[in-house]
Design goal:
Helix content of chain A: over 70%
Largest sheet of chain B: 2 strands, antiparallel
Strand content of chain B: under 5%
Radius of gyration of chain A: 22 Å
Order of helices and strands of chain B: HHEEHHHHHHHHHHHEEHHHHHH
Distance between the termini of chain A: 37 Å
Structural class of chain B: mainly alpha
Number of strands of chain B: 4
Oligomer: heterodimer
Order of helices and strands of chain A: HHEEHHHHHHHHHHHHHHHHH
Shape of chain B: globular
Strand content of chain A: under 5%
Number of helices of chain B: 19
Strand order of the largest sheet of chain B: 1-2
Structural class of chain A: mainly alpha
Chain lengths: 493, 472
C-alpha cells in the first residue's frame, strides 16, 4: 500500500477548509459554503469506510503505517492504525457531516468561518487517533483547542466568553505536564515513537511520575471528577454542533489516550494507580449522576451524564480485562452516538423555543410526536436499555469490573440505576405531563434534515445494540494483544 | 596579516553612516532618500556578511578581540534583516507624526553597528564599546518624538537606568580584569581558578548589566514605560533587535570565559529565567495598552530564551537562538498589526481598540489570531516549536523545576493572549481602520503569518542552520 491513506484522511478536511476560505457565497444564501463543507466531510467519511474495509482484523499490528523524517534526528511523522483507533476515526468522520447538516438553523452569523473551524477540528481529531509518535499526538491533541475555543467563543450562548476561557485554560494546564513527560520520555528512551516504545518499555522508576503527567492531561479531557467542571460550562454555552463535537469526539481522545499510552507505555504505574482510578471513576459515576438529577438545564443535565458515562469508561479501561476494555470502547462509541443525538435533540427544541430549561417544556408528546419517539430512543440508549448500544458497553464494563473488583462493580451498578432515574425523569418532564406553556403549541415537528440526522444516529445505536459483532471483531485482537503485552511487561520487570 | 574582509560588513556600515550624515547636511529635504539608502545599506551589509563570513572557520582578529564564527555571522544577519524590516515598516508612522527626519535611519544604522560589534566581541572592552554605541543611539531613538511628553520621559528613563546598569557592568569588568589580568575572553578562560570569589562578583555585575539590556526580571522596570512611551516604530525596534545582540553576548560571555564556573552562574540564570517567565505572564494580564502588554510579553519570552542558556549545553544555546529567531518573526507580525491600527492619521494602541476587528478586517484579525496563538505556544504554530526546543534542552539536563514552571507560565500567559483574541472575535465591532498601508507593512505581516503557519511543514531547516553553532 503506497497511497498515504491516513495522511489524506487527516489532510482532506483541512483542504476543504482551505477552499471554504476562498469560497464566496451570497449573504442570504449560504448554500455554496455548506455544500463544499458537506462534500468534503462526506468524502472523508467514505474514505474512512474504505479504510475499514481494507483494514485487516486478524492482527494487532499497526497498519497503513507512514513513517517520514519530520525533524531530523528528533521526531518522525508517524501515523498508523490498529483496531482501537479505526473505530474512533470512523466515529469522527461519521459525526462531522451530521454536525455540518445540523447547522441549518442554529448558526446565523459567519457560517463559513464556523464550517472552517469544524473541518479543521476534524483534521486534528483524526490526527489524534492515528498518530504513532508522542510529539505528533501532542501536536494534534493541543491544536484542537484553537478551533474549539473559537467555536464556543464566537457562536456560543450568553456566558460564552467565560466558558471558552475555562475550557481552554483547563485543558492547556492539563496538557503542559504531558509535554514535560513526552520530552522526558525522549531523553529516557531516546525515541518518541510509540511502536518502538512498546518494544523497549520504559524504566520502572520513571513510570509513576510519567503516568501522572499523562493522567493530568487525560483526566481533564475525559473529564474525570474533580476536574470535570469545565465540561458543563462548555457544553451549555457551545452551539449545538460544538456540543456534539465536544461530547462525541473530543472526550474520546482522552479515553483513547488512556488505552494507548497509559496502559501501553506504563503498565507498572497503571497497576499501581488502578485503585486511584477506580475511586475517581466511582465517585464520578455516583456523584455526577446525583448532580444530573438536580439540573434544570437540559444541556447541563446531559453534560453531567457525560461525565458519569466517561466514569464508566475509565473504570472499564483500568479493569485490564478483555471485556472491560472492549466495553469501554463500545461505551465510548455509543456515547459518541447517543450524546451527540441528545444534544441535537436539545438543539431542536432550543431552536424553536430558545430555552433549554426543562420547566419551559412539558407535554410535547402530543405536539411533536416524531421528535418524542426519537428522543425516547436516545434516552433509553443513554440509560443502557438492552437492545441499544449503551447496554452493550455498560454490560461489558460491569462484567470486567466484577472480575476485577467486586465492590467497585456493585457501586458502579448503582450508578446505572441513578442514570436511568435522571434520564427518565428528564424525558417525563419534557415530553409527558400537562401542556402548561401555551407557546409550545406553535412548535413544529422535526424538519427533513433534523429527521435525517437523528435517524442516521439512531440506526447505528440500534444496530450495535442488537449486533455489536462488527465493533467487537475489529477491536478484539488489538485488545487481547494489548492485555497480553501489558501482563508480560508487568511480570517482566 | 589581518583578514579585513571578515570585518568588511562593519567597515561598510560605518562608512555608509558617515556618508549619509554628510549627505544629510548638504542636501535639503533628503529624508526619503536617506531612508531608502539606509535600507539598501542594511541589505548590502547583510549580503556581505552572508558572503564573506558565514561558513568561515572561527577566526580571531585584532589581538583576539574580535571573533568571527558561525554564531556571530548568523546573529548579525538576523539583526540586519530585523532592522531592515523595522526601518522599512516605520516610514508611514514617522510621516504621520511629522518626525520623518534624516536622523532616524542614521541612528538605527549606528545602533545596528554597535550591535554588530557587540555580537563579534571577544573582549570586554570591545563588548562595552559596542554596547555603548548601540545604547546611545537607542536613547535618542526613544525620545525621537520629542514634542510628546511620554516619549521624552521614555528616553530619559531609559538613559538614566541604562547608564546605571552600564556602570554596574563596567564595575564587573574591572573586577574581572583585576583578578585575571586580562579583558580577553579566551585569556580569562585560561587564567580561571574557581576559588576566586571576587570573580563571581564580577560575573554577577556583568550579568546584571546584561539582564538589564534584555529586560529580564528583576531588571525589567524600564521596559514597559519605555516601550509605551517611544514611538511605535521604535518600540518595534526595541523589542527585537537589541535583544539579539544582548543574547549573543550573554552566550559568548557565559560560555567562553566562564563555562567552568557554571555552578556559579547557572543559579542566577535559572532565577532570571523563572522570574521573567512568571512575571511576564502575570503582569501582562492587567494591561490595557497593547504596547505595554507587548513589553510584558517580551519579558516573558526573554525568560524562555534564558532558560535555554541556563542549561549549559550546546543544545541549550541552539534552542535559545531558535527561540529568539522565531520570536522575532512573531514580533514583526504583531507590530505590523499594531502599525495598521490607524484611523484618520491617528494611531490606536489600546486593547479595546481591537474590539470586533474580525468583522471589519477579517484577514488582519486572522493573521493576528495566528500570531497570538503562536506567541502563546499552541501547536502546530511556530511558537510551539520554539518552546518545544527550549524545554527539550532544559529537560535534557534534568532541570524539571525550570521546565514545569516555564510550561505553567505559558498557561498563565495564554490567558492574556486569549483576552486579545476574545476582544477581536467575540466583542462588538467599532469603526473601520484605514487600509492604505505601505507595502512593507503588508509584506511583513503576510510573511510572518505564513512563516508561523507553515513552519511545522519544514521544521528541520531552521534547526539545520542553527545546529552549526558550536560554542562549547
Amino acid at each position: 500500500m503506497n497511497f498515504p491513506i491516513l495522511s489524506s484522511l487527516i489532510l482532506l478536511p483541512s483542504i476543504g477548509a482551505f477552499f471554504l476560505f476562498f469560497t464566496k457565497s451570497k449573504k442570504e444564501d449560504n448554500k455554496t459554503v455548506k455544500y463544499v463543507a458537506l462534500f468534503t466531510s462526506l468524502v472523508t467519511f467514505f474514505l474512512s469506510i474504505y479504510l475499514w474495509i481494507l483494514f485487516d482484523q486478524s492482527t494487532s499490528e499497526f497498519q497503513f503505517i507512514e513513517d517520514r523524517v519530520w525533524i531530523e534526528g528528533l521526531i518522525n511523522y508517524k501515523v498508523g492504525i490498529d483496531g482501537i483507533s479505526i473505530l474512533f476515526i470512523i466515529l469522527t468522520t461519521f459525526i462531522t457531516p451530521l454536525c455540518i447538516i445540523s447547522v441549518n438553523n442554529s448558526i446565523q452569523k459567519r457560517l463559513s468561518e464556523f464550517l472552517i473551524a469544524i473541518l479543521i477540528m476534524e483534521s486534528f481529531m483524526i490526527g489524534v487517533f492515528c498518530s504513532l509518535d508522542l510529539v505528533v499526538f501532542y501536536l494534534f491533541f493541543e491544536a484542537g483547542l484553537i478551533p474549539m475555543f473559537l467555536i464556543i467563543g464566537i457562536w456560543g450562548g450568553s456566558r460564552r466568553v467565560y466558558s471558552a476561557f475555562k475550557f481552554f485554560l483547563y485543558t492547556l494546564l492539563g496538557s503542559v505536564l504531558m509535554l514535560v513527560a513526552i520530552i522526558s520520555i525522549y531523553w529516557i528512551s531516546g525515541t518518541t515513537d510509540v511502536v518502538k516504545l512498546y518494544e523497549l518499555g520504559i524504566d520502572a522508576k520513571y513510570q509513576n511520575l510519567l503516568w501522572l503527567a499523562f493522567f493530568s492531561s487525560f483526566a481533564v479531557k475525559t473529564p474525570m471528577w474533580p476536574v470535570h467542571t469545565w465540561l458543563p460550562d462548555a457544553h451549555v454555552e457551545a452551539p449545538t454542533a460544538g456540543s456534539v463535537l465536544l461530547a462525541a469526539i473530543l472526550l474520546k481522545m482522552a479515553g483513547y489516550g488512556f488505552i494507548r499510552f497509559s496502559l501501553g507505555l506504563f503498565p507498572i504505574a497503571s497497576e499501581i494507580f488502578t485503585p486511584f482510578i477506580y475511586t475517581l471513576s466511582v465517585i464520578a459515576i455516583i456523584f455526577t449522576s446525583f448532580i444530573a438529577l438536580m439540573q434544570e438545564d437540559m444541556k447541563k443535565l446531559i453534560a453531567y451524564s457525560s461525565v458519569a458515562h466517561m466514569g464508566f469508561v475509565t473504570l472499564g479501561i483500568f479493569t485490564i480485562q478483555q471485556q472491560g476494555i472492549e466495553g469501554s470502547i463500545i461505551q465510548m462509541i455509543s456515547h459518541g452516538l447517543v450524546s451527540a443525538a441528545l444534544f441535537l435533540c436539545v438543539g431542536v427544541v432550543y431552536d424553536r423555543m430558545h430555552s433549554r430549561l426543562i420547566s419551559t417544556y412539558g407535554g410535547l408528546v402530543s405536539i411533536i410526536p416524531k421528535y418524542s419517539v426519537l428522543f425516547m430512543l436516545f434516552t433509553l440508549a443513554a440509560l443502557g436499555l438492552p437492545g441499544t448500544s449503551g447496554f452493550v458497553g455498560e454490560f461489558l464494563i460491569l462484567m470486567g469490573a466484577f472480575k476485577d473488583n467486586f465492590l467497585v462493580a456493585v457501586i458502579a451498578s448503582f450508578g446505572v440505576i441513578i442514570g436511568a432515574a435522571y434520564m427518565l425523569w428528564l424525558y417525563k418532564r419534557v415530553i409527558f405531563g400537562k401542556l402548561i406553556n401555551q407557546d409550545l403549541k406553535q412548535m413544529i415537528d422535526l424538519n427533513k434534515s433534523e429527521l435525517f440526522i437523528l435517524t442516521c444516529l439512531a440506526i447505528p445505536t440500534l444496530l450495535f445494540g442488537f449486533y455489536p459483532e462488527p465493533l467487537i471483531s475489529t477491536i478484539e485482537v488489538s485488545i487481547s494483544d494489548l492485555i497480553k503485552v501489558y501482563n508480560m511487561n508487568l511480570t517482566g520487570y | 596579516m589581518i583578514n579585513l574582509e571578515l570585518v568588511l560588513p562593519e567597515i561598510f556600515l560605518s562608512l555608509s553612516i558617515m556618508f549619509l550624515l554628510i549627505l544629510g547636511v548638504f542636501k535639503k529635504e533628503s529624508s526619503k532618500l536617506i531612508q531608502n539608502i539606509s535600507l539598501i545599506v542594511l541589505l548590502i551589509t547583510a549580503v556581505i556578511t552572508f558572503n564573506e563570513t558565514l561558513g568561515k572557520n572561527e577566526t580571531l582578529l585584532f589581538n583576539e578581540s574580535i571573533i568571527i564564527d558561525y554564531l556571530s555571522s548568523f546573529m548579525k544577519i538576523i539583526t540586519l534583516l530585523a532592522a531592515f524590516l523595522a526601518l522599512a515598516m516605520s516610514s508611514n508612522y514617522l510621516r504621520i507624526f511629522k518626525i520623518f527626519k534624516i536622523e532616524y535611519p542614521i541612528l538605527i544604522l549606528s545602533s545596528v553597528l554597535g550591535m554588530m560589534v557587540m555580537i563579534s566581541s571577544n573582549d570586554l572592552i570591545v563588548f562595552y564599546m559596542g554596547l555603548e554605541l548601540q545604547s546611545l543611539a537607542l536613547y535618542v531613538l526613544a525620545t525621537f518624538n520629542r514634542d510628546q511628553l511620554k516619549s521624552s520621559e521614555a528616553g530619559l528613563k531609559y538613559f538614566v537606568l541604562s547608564a546605571l546598569s552600564s556602570g554596574l557592568l563596567l564595575y564587573g569588568c574591572s573586577l574581572i580584569y583585576g583578578f585575571t589580568g586580562s579583558t580577553n575572553f579566551n585569556f580569562i578562560a585560561n587564567q580561571l581558578s574557581s576559588d576566586e570569589y571576587a570573580l563571581t562578583f564580577g560575573i554577577v555585575f556583568i550579568l546584571v548589566g546584561l539582564a538589564f539590556k534584555i529586560s529580564a526580571v528583576p531588571f525589567h522596570m524600564w521596559a514597559p514605560d519605555v516601550y509605551e512611551g517611544s514611538p511605535t516604530s521604535v518600540t518595534l525596534f526595541f523589542t527585537m533587535v537589541p535583544k539579539i545582540a544582548a543574547l549573543t553576548v550573554f552566550i559568548r560571555f557565559l560560555y567562553v570565559p566562564f563555562l567552568n564556573l557554571i555552578d556559579q552562574w547557572q543559579m542566577i540564570l535559572i532565577f532570571l529565567s523563572i522570574a521573567s517567565m512568571l512575571f511576564g505572564a502575570i503582569a501582562a494580564i492587567g494591561q490595557n495598552n497593547l504596547k505595554r502588554l507587548v513589553a510584558y510579553s517580551s519579558i516573558g519570552h526573554v525568560g524562555y530564551a534564558l532558560a535555554g542558556l541556563a542549561t549549559g549545553s550546546n543544545d541549550g544555546i541552539q534552542s535559545s537562538v531558535i527561540y529568539i529567531t522565531i520570536y522575532i518573526i512573531m514580533n514583526l507580525g504583531l507590530f505590523s498589526c499594531l502599525l495598521m491600527m490607524k484611523r484618520n492619521n491617528e494611531y490606536y494602541e489600546d486593547i479595546d481598540d481591537l474590539s470586533g476587528l474580525s468583522k471589519n478586517h477579517p484577514l488582519l484579525s486572522l493573521s493576528l489570531l495566528i500570531i497570538l496563538f503562536s506567541l502563546a505556544g499552541i501547536p502546530p504554530l511556530a511558537g510551539f516549536f520554539a518552546k518545544f526546543y527550549i524545554f527539550k534542552s532544559v529537560l535534557q539536563q534534568s532541570m524539571y523545576f525550570l521546565a514545569i514552571v516555564g510550561l505553567l507560565s505559558t498557561v498563565v500567559a495564554a490567558f492574556y493572549y486569549l483576552r486579545i483574541i476574545k476582544i477581536m472575535y467575540f466583542d462588538k465591532e467599532k469603526e473601520k481602520y484605514d487600509t492604505d498601508h505601505s507595502l512593507w507593512l503588508k509584506f511583513s505581516l503576510t510573511a510572518s503569518t505564513l512563516l508561523i503557519l507553515i513552519y511545522f511543514v519544514f521544521p528541520s531547516q531552521l534547526i539545520e542552520v542553527v545546529s552549526r553553532i558550536n560554542i562549547i
